[in-house]
Amino acid sequence: MEPASLRISYIVVLVTLYHVTYTQPIGKSDDSCTRMCYGISGKNSDNWKEYGSNTYMDVDMGRCKFKTTPVVMTTLGGDMYHWRAIGHNAIYQVSRTKFRIYVRNMEEDALEDAHEGKWYVMWVAVGSICRRSSRTRW
User: Fold this and answer.
1) Residues 6+ apart with CB under 8 A from 137
2) Using CB atoms within 10 A of its CB, is residue 9 exposed (0-12), middle (13-18) or buried (19+)?
């Protein structure tokens, strides 16, 4: 029997052509406002943009419906060259609906490698989907 704090009551799957997002409740059963949302962004797409000899991607988390700025963690995947990327887990401009990552390449042009290597971002965000009242019980 699994503990109540690990019970998952539902999973919502939202899919578009290049962006996959999943949401599910986490935490204790009495905290129905905390959600984990995760996805893969940029797979088979042209989401990478040039930034000097580096590249960046804006990741859309709008489908997560966070009411507060979440905690976000990322990793980089691809078919090749992503092993030499630097910075993919340094997250910038986090808001309720999006974040940005900048990626630098140790040896070559990062944008070219991102496209040729079919890089994508796998991410997890944890935040609140409820507006908390000023009478929050601790």
Assistant:
1) none
2) exposed
* Whole-angstrom distance, CA of residue 84 vs CA of residue 105: 6
What pTM did the predictor assign? 0.73
Residues whose CB falls within 8 Å of the CB of residue 56, separated by 6 or more in sequence, listed in order: 48, 49, 100, 101, 102, 103
Distance, in Å, from the CA atom of 52 to the CA atom of 16, rounded to the nearest integer, reads 30
What are the CA-CA distances from residue 39 to residues 30, 43, 46, 68, 72 (Å)? 25, 11, 17, 18, 11
What is d(CA 123, CA 103) in angstroms, rounded to the nearest whole number? Answer: 15
The predicted-structure confidence for 100-124, as pLDDT tens digits, reads as follows 999 998 877 888 889 999 999 999 9
Residue 34 gets the label, from left (phi > 0), alpha (psi -120 to 50) or beta, of: beta
CA distance linking residue 54 with residue 63, whole number of Å: 28
How far lies 62's CA from each of 10, 85, 134, in Å? 19, 26, 25
